[in-house]
């Protein structure tokens, strides 16, 4: 469950921390007090986007932290698939926002926002103010059915997704490779020309590096020779050599007088020998370093040709040779094109057969689950004051495959006796859509391990007896799940296991939102405010007390 919520420096919230409870948590307050900010803050901590203008003080970061505890073994294992290790069946999600960026963390470790969204899918389900509008889009109905049937259908859908990806890849390959015969003939001719061009070059790996080194040496021949001549003058017979020789002779003449001088004499003798060896190598290099104009032109021409091949086939000889092998393979394929096309078509047929078989199995699972979903939805809708309701699922086969198979499905409903079944988009009342969504959420909650559900103003367009039945349905869901609900209706608020009041206060000449847990008397007073508006009379308070008593008896 969501045990703790902490929000700092967002919109009207300076700093709020609240300990939520098991069961039905109700949040009430006057319009504009900041109830929606609480839900937006939770959504932000779960990886959703937030406007940087939500920052209360622009020079300070906004921060939201959620602590989920008492996680089931199944949820812990699901989190581990995301490389998230719960600690004592708990996990901490947090997010900080500044004007420039946001930072997300799970258990103190920085993660991308997408990882928060992945984790949220296992931890909490948020029904926003307008989510019931998704019922107007038939494409969403299949998602709801698959959520309901996830235990049976989940692995099959993964297999179907892999098979469909292979089918699409094979189909694309066939379309691209087996097109216009004349175009393929032109491709073969061009490939043969390119292969001949590479073969004519007679490439050797490493050849380009050796030639480039020789080319640099010949290009800088004059500069090299000038430097060598100056070096020879500085260290040769007219330079350092005779001076070092004289030094050797002088040290040798006195080395017998001191062992240190003997060692120094030996060192200088080695220098004289090294210099002599250096001069021999220098002389040999200069004798062989004659500029060959014809060789220079040959190297230049060869490098031009290699660079031309690199510009076409790869930036190294190794890559050119690899391209050559690929082109030869493609030539062999094109020369045996009929066999290749037959093989590819057979491969596509096998891929399509696999997709068809998996789609059929997925469809069968959905239809079995649909029977169960229909029965549970009818009972749930009856609990929500749809007394003569009919509910069904209409399956059709789509024209094309997708990663979801070939099913197209839409919910159908009749809310009054004698009325034909019709699409949900034909249900005009917002209140009816809200109740249908609540019924669907309650049925889905029975089948998943998500411990926390948030309903943001599920009471849209309802009142009276219907509101009472909605409150009882929320209470029923809250027996096995933590439910957090924002409401304007006293009938729903009266059913609270924990009642929180959201209010605006003036602190240091600034408006801030505060969140308080109400005791029983305070809860009754808040119910009185919700019942009576401005004038909270003794009669109104007595009605609120009676409403609270009846709610407790109904639990």
What class do helices, strands and sheet pairing give?
Answer: alpha/beta
Reported by name, the CATH topology of the domain at 2-129 and 448-554 is Rossmann fold
What share of residues are in beta strands? 15-25%
Low-pLDDT stretches are none
H/I helix tally: 18
What is the CATH C-level name of the domain at 2-129 and 448-554? Alpha Beta
Gap between N and C termini? 21 Å
Q: Let me know the CATH homologous superfamily of the domain at 2-129 and 448-554.
A: P-loop containing nucleotide triphosphate hydrolases
The Rg value, from CA coordinates, equals: 41 Å
Beta strand count: 15
Measured as a percent range, the helix fraction is 55-70%
The main pleated sheet reads as: 6 strands, antiparallel
Give the topology, please:
Layout: E1 2-10, E2 13-19, E3 24-29, H1 35-45, E4 62-68, H2 73-80, E5 91-97, E6 102-106, E7 109-111, H3 113-123, E8 124-127, H4 138-148, H5 150-177, H6 181-201, H7 207-219, H8 221-235, H9 240-254, H10 259-288, H11 293-313, H12 317-335, H13 337-383, E9 390-402, E10 405-414, E11 422-423, H14 430-447, E12 452-456, H15 464-478, E13 482-486, H16 490-493, E14 498-507, E15 510-518, H17 520-532, H18 538-554
Parallel strand pairs: 3-13, 3-14, 8-12, 12-13
Antiparallel strand pairs: 1-2, 1-4, 4-5, 5-6, 6-7, 9-10, 10-11, 14-15
């Amino acid at each position: 469950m969501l045990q703790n919520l902490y929000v700092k420096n967002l919109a009207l919230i300076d700093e709020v921390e609240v300990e939520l409870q098991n069961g039905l948590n109700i949040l009430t307050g006057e319009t504009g007090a900041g109830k929606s900010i609480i839900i937006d803050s939770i959504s932000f901590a779960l990886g959703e986007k937030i406007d940087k203008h939500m920052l209360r003080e622009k020079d300070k970061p906004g921060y939201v932290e959620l602590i989920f505890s008492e996680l089931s073994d199944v949820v812990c294992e699901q989190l581990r698939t995301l490389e998230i290790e719960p600690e004592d069946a708990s996990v901490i999600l947090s997010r900080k926002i500044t004007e420039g960026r946001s930072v997300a963390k799970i258990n103190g470790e920085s993660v991308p926002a997408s990882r928060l969204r992945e984790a949220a899918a296992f931890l909490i389900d948020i029904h926003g103010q307008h989510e019931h509008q998704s019922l107007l889009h038939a494409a969403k109905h299949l998602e709801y059915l698959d959520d309901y049937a996830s235990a049976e259908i989940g692995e099959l859908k993964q297999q179907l997704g892999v098979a469909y990806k292979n089918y699409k890849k094979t189909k694309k390959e066939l379309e691209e490779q087996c097109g216009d015969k004349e175009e393929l003939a032109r491709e073969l001719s061009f490939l043969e020309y390119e292969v001949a061009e590479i073969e004519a070059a007679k490439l050797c790996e490493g050849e380009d590096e050796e030639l480039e080194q020789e080319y640099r040496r010949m290009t800088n021949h004059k500069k090299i020779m000038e430097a060598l001549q100056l070096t020879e003058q500085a260290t040769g017979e007219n330079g350092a050599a005779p001076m070092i020789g004289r030094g050797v002779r002088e040290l040798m003449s006195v080395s017998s007088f001191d062992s240190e001088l003997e060692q120094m004499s030996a060192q200088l003798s080695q220098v004289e020998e090294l210099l002599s060896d250096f001069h021999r190598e220098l002389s040999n290099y200069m004798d062989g370093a004659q500029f060959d104009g014809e060789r220079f032109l040959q190297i230049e021409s060869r490098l031009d040709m290699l660079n031309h091949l690199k510009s076409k086939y790869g930036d190294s000889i190794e890559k050119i040779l690899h391209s050559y092998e690929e082109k030869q393979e493609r030539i062999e394929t094109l020369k045996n094109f009929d066999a290749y096309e037959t093989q590819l078509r057979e491969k596509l047929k096998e891929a399509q057969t696999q997709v068809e078989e998996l789609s059929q199995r997925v469809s069968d699972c959905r239809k079995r689950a649909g029977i169960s979903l229909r029965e549970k939805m009818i009972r749930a809708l009856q609990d929500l004051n749809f007394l003569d309701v009919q509910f069904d699922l209409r399956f059709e086969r789509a024209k094309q495959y997708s990663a979801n198979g070939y099913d197209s499905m839409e919910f159908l409903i009749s809310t009054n006796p004698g009325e034909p079944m019709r699409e949900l988009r034909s249900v005009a009342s917002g209140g009816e859509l809200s109740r249908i969504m609540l019924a669907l959420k309650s049925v889905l909650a029975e089948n998943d391990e998500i411990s926390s559900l948030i309903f943001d103003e599920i009471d849209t367009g309802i009142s009276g007896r219907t509101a009472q039945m909605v409150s009882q349905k929320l209470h029923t869901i809250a027996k096995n799940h933590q439910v957090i609900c924002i409401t304007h209706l006293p009938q729903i608020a009266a059913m609270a296991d924990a009642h929180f009041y959201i209010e605006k206060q003036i602190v240091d000449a600034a408006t801030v939102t505060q969140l308080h847990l109400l005791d029983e008397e305070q809860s009754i007073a808040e119910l009185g405010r919700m019942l009576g508006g401005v004038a909270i009379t003794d009669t109104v308070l007595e009605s609120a007390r009676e409403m609270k008593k009846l709610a407790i008896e109904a639990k």
